[in-house]
Amino acid sequence: MPLSELTGSRVRERRLALGLRQAELAQAVGISASYLNLIEHNRRRVAGDVLLRLAAELGVATDVLQQGAAAGLAEALRGAAGEAGGEAAEIDRLEEFLGRFPGWAAVLAGQQTRIGQLERAVAALNDRIAHDPHLGAALHEVLSAVSSVRSTAGILAETEDIAADWRARFHANLYQDSERLAQGAEALVTYLEGAEQTATPGSGSPEEELDQWLVARDWQLDGAAADLDQLATEAARGMARGLILQAEADAARMPDAAFRAARSAEADDLLRLAARFGVSALAVMRRIALRPGAAEGLVICDGAGALILRKPVAGFSPPRFGAACALWPLFRALTRLGQPIRAEIEMAGRRGERFSARAWAEAEHPAGFDGIEVRRAGMLLSPQLPGTAAPVLRVGASCRICPEAACAARREASILG
């Protein structure tokens, strides 16, 4: 079969890699789902405007879909040249390089892919080891039991004239602490093994479990209550219930059709949309970002700056535990209630993805006038939001994996050097 006849297979592979449903891609391109199905099974040739629209929606060049591996190799090398330090690469001679040295080209492209995988692994491990409270609690339990066993054993070994009843008590304590140590070690091993199976619901913390569940559902919360039994822990199920109820309330006040029309009419202005539907700006942010296929990312924090909702997007992955980058517009908004904050941010690192960030903070008084104030702040990230001349602000995910050595807001040294 000629390479051009495999275009449909490449369309399907790219769509699945992006997590898009067939119906979603078909709607975005302006064709029927049945026609796209025929294309993906190489039963219809694709060219012209349809090919251009498919390539645009899938984020690749048309030659990647038409030519396959060679074009994909060229795309990978262009990505490598776009990283920091790749400015000297002769992009105009890329085809010559591919033709003369295909082996070296494949090696460089493979290394580029591997570096990206390792960066994601470092970020995930840093998240777990440095900030995971469940891991810290498990380690503390093991160390506490070890110290208790050592102390009791030391008394028994170094004291010869212990009364029989006290010796029996020490033996009982030693047995109990040994049991506690064994249980703590078993729990720790189980937890660490769960870290290697991140796709398994129930592994790790409730936050991880909920994140995996949401990603598996492509952030589709309609009808999600029927699938709560897929979550292994009651803590994760409780968090999911709260998110589902919130999403249902948002959808009731901002129905899909009306909300889509309003977004177009108001040019996606968060405050105008909030005024039109009589809701908070944070509710508008949730309605935009928490839906299948949404290109926007969303982070919401409480008054202490702890992240209570995190929807990552390609190029931006908020830390699950611990402190995030202090330079995020999210935290600036937290100190300026009711003031819109907008900034163009660039993620520190090799790729340096850019986002338009809009942040907003608000306060509630659930216990009435004399009750406590509860603050929430949200930051909506859009990869392609035009209309601002603000300077670009370089930020990171957290200090431990941020390469910006000269950052004035740095709290600790980066493990990346």
Summary, kept brief:
The chain is 52% helix and 10% strand. It has helices spanning 7-18, 22-29, 33-40, 48-58, 62-67, 69-81, 94-100, 102-131, 133-158, 164-195, 206-216, 234-253, 256-265, 270-277, 281-289, 329-334; strands at residues 297-302, 307-311, 341-347, 354-364, 374-382, 392-395.
Q: How would you describe what is shown here?
A:
The chain has 417 residues and is of the alpha+beta class. The protein folds into three domains: 3-113, lambda repressor-like DNA-binding domains (434 Repressor (Amino-terminal Domain), Orthogonal Bundle), CATH 1.10.260.40; 133-195; 295-417, Beta-Lactamase, CATH 3.30.450. Helix content is 52%, strand content 10%. The protein contains 16 helices and six strands. It has helices at 7-18, 22-29, 33-40, 48-58, 62-67, 69-81, 94-100, 102-131, 133-158, 164-195, 206-216, 234-253, 256-265, 270-277, 281-289, 329-334, and strands at 297-302, 307-311, 341-347, 354-364, 374-382, 392-395. A six-stranded mixed β-sheet has the order 2-1-5-4-3-6. A hairpin with a 4-residue loop joins strand 1 (297-302) and strand 2.
